[in-house]
Structures are given as C-alpha cells and as structure tokens.
C-alpha cells in the first residue's frame, strides 16, 4: 500500500462524520486490503443528470454521509453563484439503509450554509418530493433514493425549481462545485437552525393534486397491489380510497418497507420473478388488475388476466403507456393537447396522437427530457409522457414519473373497459387494427467488476463502428450515431433502421452497468380478423431480431 493512498485515507477519515465508515476503513487498512481501498478512493462517484447512485460504503466512490454533505455543499455553492444564496430546498427520503440519516445530513448542510431546508416527515415516494418542489415554491429538491437498484445501493436525486431533474450544463457545473468543496479537505458543517420538518399537509397536497388526473366515474375494478418492499404502499392505498376505488388486495409479504428486499433478487417490477407473489394473489382473488410500484413509487407495472384466460400476463411498459394514452386521448378534447415519449419507447404513441390531432414530442431517454414540454410549451395541455421502463407522468401534476397517479388512471381505464365489456387485449387489438401491431422487446448486457464502465464504453464503440448490414434478413436502411445530435440533443447511443421497419436503439444505461438494446417491429394488420396472425408474425420477427442483437452485443 502506497504512502499516498494511506495519506488520502487518513485525510478522508479525519473529516468523515460517520463512525461506522471510519471503522470500516480502519479495518481495511489493518487487513492491507489494498485493491479494495484503491477502488474506494479511485476517483469519485460521478454526479450527473441522474444525481448520484452507488453502493453504500466508505470513501469518495461510495454513498456515505461525507459524500452527501459534500454534494449538498456543492449544490449550495452553485445556487449561490446563480444568485440564490439563501435557497429553500425540499428534502425527501425513502426507507433504504442510510436514507433517513443522509436526508438529515443534506438538510443540515442546507441550513448551515444559509438555506432553508423543508424535510418531509417520513419515508415517502419520490413523486411526493417532486410535487413538493412545486407546491412549496422551492428552489430545489433533494430525494435520497436508489429507486429500484439493489439493496446495497443508495442515491441522491436532484430537482431544480421547475420541478424537473436537471440537464446539461447544470450537471457538470454542480459536479465542479462538489469537486471544489471536496478539494478543500475541510469538514462540512451542519445545523438544525433552519430545518423545518413538514407535516402531513405536504403528503395530502400530492394526494389531492393527483385526483385531477381522473376523467370518469368508473371505479368498479378489483386490484391486487404490491409495494415491492418500498415506501409507496400506504400512500397508494390512501390515493385509491380518496378516489373512490375499492381497496386493493395487498401482497402482505412485500407491503411494509424493508431495505433488504428479502423476497426479490432485484426490487424492480421489470425483473423476472419480482411479480410472482402478486400474480399468485391475483389468481386467488380473481383480480381484474395487478399493480406493482417500485421501491420509491415513481414507476408502475401492470398485469392482467392472460389472453387465454389462464393466469396473468405482465404488460410491457409500452403496452401500459399506449393504454393510458388511449384513455386520456379518448376523454379529453381540444387542439392544444400534447403527449410525449422517449426515443426508445414505441412509435405507436405518435400514430395515436396524429390520428387524434394531438402534438407528440419524441425526447431523449429520462424524465428530465420527457417532462420538459410541460415547461417549454406551457400553453399545451400535457396529457401524458412515458418511457418504456415503466415510467409515466400524467396531467402535468408531477414533472417526473409518478407511479401513484399512473396507478389511478390504469385502474380507471380498466374499470371502463370492464363496463364496456372489453378486455385490455381487446383494446390493444383495436389499436393494432388502426395503426399496426407494434411489438417491443429489450436485450440487455450487464457488466460487473471495477472495469464495468470501460467494458460498456468498449461495447458502444464497437457497436457504433460496426453496424450490421442486415438484421434477421432485413437490410440496414440507416445508422445514426445519437451522439451527433442530428434530431435531438446529443446522447450516447446508436439508432438502426431496417427495411422491414424494424428499429433498434442501443445505448448505455445511465444508472446501471448495462448496455441495453430497444427493439421494435411493426407488422401490418389486414383487419379485425387478422390481429392474432399479425401478432404471431410480429412475435417471430421480434424473437429473431432479439437473437441477432444479442449475438451482436455478446460478440462486441
């Protein structure tokens, strides 16, 4: 172990306010765990438009109390440089290990540096914090959460005064301010003097606001709900009661917050097996609809009775998105409406919008972009924005994804289908007859180890330099490097279009060590009698495309 590394560790422990992380570093030094220590102190968690997200632990490359304090001090310095020296900042937190302490640290730094910290009263869903930034007319909002990441992780999500997550160049400016704070090597002071713990009025404000997204009086629907060991359970039940829906049957094993997520490998409704308990309960309850939030409540997954009537089938993020959009487009009117979807989401929404005479914005991935039409086009009525990763924002009530309000609209939409004698599959088939069968499916390559980022970069470099001449027998029509920003702001990724209208977008994840491909095939539908055959043709094409893309990424 080098003297420089030992000196760096000593300087860090001298200002670390947490006995547990200081003790862990002492243990590692005594054990001469050089490789581990080098990784902990090799650089710093990157602060970007998604804020911070990493495993908890000691050192600048992990989530810990000192990193949270330095990050918040950097944020305060940046706000001061922009003419807001005494900002009001709302602070929220989920139920993960360390979240409450991190939130109190963030609030204490805000107060010590002349700001006013409004601390939410208990672990609450991220949408409550996002709405609180607007309702409290705050200058920023900080949410301590790692969303649907594994139990070892935590994170720091930042909203600015417009209630939207930040975009460039604010992220790099704040990152530079954080680096400047860390470079001083000084302890970060905290204070309780200007910390206000909010009462339940902040919670009620979100519950009341999201009632605005409901457009009919249809409420007769039986639901099963899982909170996935997160913080959304009590809040969703309160929202359903206030809206007049029957109380959902809840998955008891997953309802109470538990930072260890004991019943799932990954606390993400998209992951295989995560919905198993909810689907079992739905079978015993003969439920019409299954609802699953992720741990911080900003995403929602749906499942419904399968087409053949046996068991339940989870809907894809795109299927849910277009069903919610169909409901909202049907029950609203006027030329000033707008919908939005990320680039990697299905192209079906744009066709539906065109048929309804509604504007449709295609944005970069992430709700910092999907929500932006709310502020960039304030004269428009923002109906829905969505991305295929189970994120939905409805009615402009929250300028981020909101799994609580989306659950309300999903329940209302299914209740209406039941009243009309339709199933979800009937409604999707009607959309297919009107616009073609749109099928989407992902391919993901996950990386591990200290060089995960390097592996991701090498894979993307290979993909961009070696686009396939054809995919599953269809020739390549165009290849676009998204970093060149031809139609949208520059972003890492590759967009491939093929002669049969198959679209493949390959991009690195912004929050996980993954490279992900988003594949969409569109199959014509001759008429109502052709929906099943069209779907079968499309499924064969999608499967072939997924296999080809998987081979391409695996060999990159």
Number of DSSP E strands: 21
The biggest sheet amounts to: 6 strands, mixed
Annotated CATH homologous superfamily of the largest domain: Alpha-D-Glucose-1,6-Bisphosphate, subunit A, domain 3
Radius of gyration equals: 24 Å
Shape annotation: globular
Number of helices: 18
Overall structural domain count: 3
The CATH top-level class label of the largest domain: Alpha Beta
Share of helix, binned:
25-40%
Portion in strands = 15-25%
Weakly predicted, low-confidence segments: none
Q: What is the mean predicted local confidence, pLDDT?
A: 96
Distance between the termini: 35 Å
Task: Predict the CATH topology of the largest domain.
Answer: Alpha-D-Glucose-1,6-Bisphosphate, Chain A, domain 3
Specify the structural class.
Answer: alpha/beta
Q: Judging by the overall fold, what is the CATH architecture of the largest domain?
A: 3-Layer(aba) Sandwich
Strand order of the largest sheet: 1-5-4-2-3-6
Summarize the structure.
With 556 residues, the chain is α/β, with parallel strands linked by helices. Helices cover 39% and strands 20% of the residues. The model has no long low-confidence stretch (mean pLDDT 96).
Q: What do these coordinates show?
A:
Helix 11 packs parallel to helix 12 (348-356) and helix 11 crosses helix 15 (403-419). Helices cover 39% and strands 20% of the residues. It is α/β, with parallel strands linked by helices and 556 residues long. The model has no long low-confidence stretch (mean pLDDT 96). A six-stranded mixed beta sheet has the order 1-5-4-2-3-6, with helices on both faces. The protein has a six-stranded antiparallel beta sheet with strand order 16-21-20-19-18-17. The protein contains 18 helices and 21 strands.
